[in-house]
Amino acid sequence: xxxxxxxSLLLPLSxxxxxxxxxxxxxxVVTGTRTALSLMQQPAPVHVVDSIGLAAMNGTSVADxxxxxxxxxxxxxxxxxALQSVSVRGMGADYSLVLxxxxxxxxxxxxxxxxxxxxxxxxxxxxxxxxxxxxxYGADAVGGVINIITHRTGAAPFLSASxxxxxxxxxxxxxxxxxxxxxxxxxxxxxRNRATNDYExxxxxxxxxxxxxxxxxxFSSKNGSIVVSRSFSEDAVSTLSLxxxxxxxxxxxxxTSAQPTASARIHDKDLVMQSHTILTVSPGVELSVPVGxxxxxxxxxxxxxxxxxxxLDAFYDNRSVxxxxxxxxxxxxxxxxxxxxxxxxxxxxxxxxxxxARDQYSLFLSGTHRLPMxxxxxxxxxxxxxxxxxxxxxxxxxxxxxxxxxEDPSLHLRASIGRNYRVPTFNxxxxxxxxxxxxxxxxxxxxxxxxxxGFDAGDIAGDADAGYFHIDATNKIVWRPGQSGRxxxxxxxxxRSTGLEFRSSLRFYRDVLRLEYHHTVMRTVKxxxxxxxxxxxxxxxxxxxxxxxTLSAGTTxxxxxxxxxxxxxxxxxxxADNDPRYVLPTVRTVDMNMSYRFTAADxxxxxxxxxxxxxxxxxxxITGYPMPLRTxxxxxxxxxxx
Amino acid sequence: xxxxxxxxLFTVVLLMIGCTSEDPSAPPTENPLVTxxxxxxxxxxFNTNTATLSVFLPDSHKVYTDVFSAANNRxxxxxxxxxxxxxxxxxxxxxxxxxxxxISASTHASLGIISVPGNSPYKLTIVNGSKxxxxxxxxxxxxxFDPATYxxxxxxxxxxxxxxxxxxxxxxxxxxxxxFGADSTISVIDPAKDSVIATISVTASPVDIALDADGxxxxxxxxxxxxxxxAKESSGAITVIDPKTLAVTATIxxxxxxxxxPSELTLSQYGYxxxxxxxxxxxxxxxxxxxxxxxxxxxxxxAIAVDDATERLYTGDAxxxxxxxxxxxxxxxxxxxxxAVVGIxxxxxxxxx
Lengths: 642, 353
Prior knowledge:
heterodimer; A: 642 residues; B: mainly beta; 3 helices; globular
């Protein structure tokens, strides 16, 4: 039952309205607790961007789809295809663990994932569990866990193709097909995106304002995926997936003069193979065995940086194998446990790092218990042990609760507390020019508490989640230069991030009009002194906003949909001592899209137009990386279901 | 309580004696040097346009942290790597803004900009009122410019790899080709020809160069770092060059097991100099070319400069390289007598007289 249910979550939701999705607290998610539970039952907030939401949001990358969520910050270095990092609760992108279909996708080499080149084309759904989750997922789940769930195969055959064109040479093509042959389900998808990204921007050197065009920011990416699945019996399903992406792009440097350098190129080749087998061993006992292999090669070249007689030409070959068998045991309807283990073997070969390998062995145990007391009290204890061949592991524990006060209208309280950690990356440990093999993991205490509410009064329905979070991280690794300019990482920093997250949605007249509002107020500060009278203590970390507000409104009437997005990101300091001279001002942007879906002959036709930065706001997420002004994209999608 | 107080007094008296007996060997001079101000160029954070120019007044102990912005109502730019005073003007090399800012050394008002797009300008020397040179760190070239008109006279004068320090001596210009370990030469440029007329071999990775009291050139070589091949790491050294004959006349080896890799250089006209090594500031005699103190001070600052007016050593501490750095002033005997907070990453210190 659970199996079928989980699979139904992953089905392509073709034929749905592609206007704004709104949070619905009856929506079931798996990332927050590794157990399928509704949003109303979670111990900490979980965001869901399902296929409807993915289609409703502008842009073509996974990062583009996450901009509106509370507690989540997306920092972009430019237009389509540019580097984008996603961080949760102010903790930096390398403090959030990215999973691909539940399997660790974050490499041990760098700890961050560039979601700006992760195409959303074959993504079915994204779940983000805000907060620490090392007791379930191990290392690096400090700020949050981002689980990218790709499309699985479905029963109904279909074929769809789309073509996109837009500003600054933006073009896209994609094809997806699905069929079933003798009990085997097959899904194939391929997409290609490119853009020249030669957009206008201004640079003010204090004397004159230069009107310039971004150069060397073009990108081209090809993505493909094959998913094969088969039910061998009612009790056994296997899915095999292969995902490939190849992205080549320019990475112009920060604009620090009227003639910025634009010669750096980044080339990413990524191959991920996964198999997921789910066996129902006996009623209430289910074994799932995910196996993942990832081969990821990045090259970074910059002919303008000539050092030691050679232009900069770095390569990073990451290889990893992950096996993570998991046993779910439903003891009674009130009590269930998950016992799992995970083994990872990861290697790095690079001309910038010493050759290195890491073996990880992990065990974890997690429970979901409905307590025998009045009301609806859920308890989520979890414990995980990780051991690494080249660095310290240890125990992580977390306990969460969800207390149902009333149902219809629903009112639940949620809380969690846990110990989390991040391991030193291969870069930290093995960088030839300064890596520090003596680094130890960073640890944090995370606490969370909030209230979840929902109502459905026929013509109007709504949901809301409001809560407080607290993260105390110590032993943080930062790179600091020593004598003679050699930079090395050291465990010196302590950081505290505290904040309030609020999100709510209202739906009118059975989704004819939908509104969603997210609001985050947080304060992420350095709490440790690196030397006497360190002026950066209790100062906000650079680039982390104290406040973000997003508002989305969508409507769908007779196949015609429209969505408007309004986002405000508060000012950010550019320096560690919060010097008021170097402030990135508050950013207010408006994006929108319209689509019209109709049937012509045998095909479903979807015409879509999107506008980004409608108000032509000049802004930067990172100093020196101007974002484009208003851009457009038009797309036509045809799909055929026999 | 009495004893410590007496000890303290005793120490203070000793310190005072130390201070007053500071320069017994200082030669009498009819025109004594007077340092009216100390300029500290703070690099600022990479890509953040946070370079600043600070001024420290040694007499009043006043510090002005950002005189360029105050005078010009704009930021100095990105990564300030060098400042040279000449004819009451300051030439400030803004590496990642690809320009040289020229300001009045009195009012700090901007007088002009020497724009060198794509050059990554690093260090600068002025030969005379109509000729100066800038090293271009990632291009392996030197640019000739006119310090009066700010015009580029000749770009792309080919030198060695990753040129860093540059100086004028005996009518010629000497360029340290570090190659970040891959080069080990000094290019000699004839300003009349704007071309390299000779190349001198020194210990690997020469980074900084200065003229000593005897008229010799002193070069600090970093050696070869452990990157990218730890097996090829090699020691640095101090090399002495006669600028007339272009011959290497002495070498002070600095074995990396003891000293790590040296960086930074400042020379006094009273016959000694300092460089920064693994465990602190090393002092050496430029007359005998020998090390006189392996650890003159247990500091490893990012910038050092000795002021011949007082023989005090100024050091720039970049601290965490994120927040404002610290300028410290030390006497000839190594006592720290003053300090001031300056800008982010104080990297170059020069004296206005």
